[in-house]
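So, who can interpret the following?
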Amino acid sequence: MAHQTSKEQHEREYQFHLDIADRIAPTWEKRRDRIEEYSAPVRRWMLRELGPQEGDTLLELAAGIGDTGFEAAEIIGRSGRLITSDLSPAMLDAARRRGADLGVENVDYRVINAEHIPLDDDSVDGVLCRFGYMLMPDPAAAFNETRRVLRPGRRVALGVWGAMERNPWLAIAGISLGQRGHIPPPPPPPAPGPFSLASADRVDGLLRDARFTQVRIEEISGRIAIADADDYLGLIGDTAGPLGVALQRLGDHDRAEVRGDVEDALRRFAVDRGGYELPCVALCAVAS
């Protein structure tokens, strides 16, 4: 019975994150430039540490709109192959549009659940996953699958968000929505969520349990520029998964209350030239 309950819970979590991704995909696509702006340091770190070579076969998991993989596609050249994948068909459609805009030709688009990758053993030369593993119901299974499809000695490069208190750009909205009863309290790790892999020790342990023997983890810090409370709520509402969906569903009165909370919280991040800068911290890992 316990096994069945655990399986049912996993399936509910899987469907929940699929539904959220499908719902947020159109607004995520609209905000692509902004997302890439604050994600750029993580993307650059991942590509540098992965070290793709001309002719490689690369897999990007939870690719979203796919910009990290598309940059790698330029490196591996026409003799290489990029597999851009996401759990969400809607996100993958957005990636196809982005790839077409960029003129990327050496790419296959596939709907893939990272916990069950439909590729042969030892079939890829590198795996990329930016802000994806943390949202998976069973990251241990995903890391094991990643190890299985990687050729011996080749690498995975990944990024996840650091601790909540070091990422106020997400925490501000989450605290207000939670205190006002618009979202349930966040479940503690290992439940999936933006901060489920915020511990370097946990990331290291999961990778080593998946038979990666060389693991290195670094913190990457940045700042997200915000014009005002409306700019902040628009960005979070369009991109931040369950928080975004919760914001989209608010009526005018509830949204005004949350906006007031946000204005109060933003004050400590004001900058002299106007607007605000919110710190963000990611954990980036490379393993082979």
User: Anything to note?
Assistant: The radius of gyration is 19 Å. The chain has a mean pLDDT of 94.
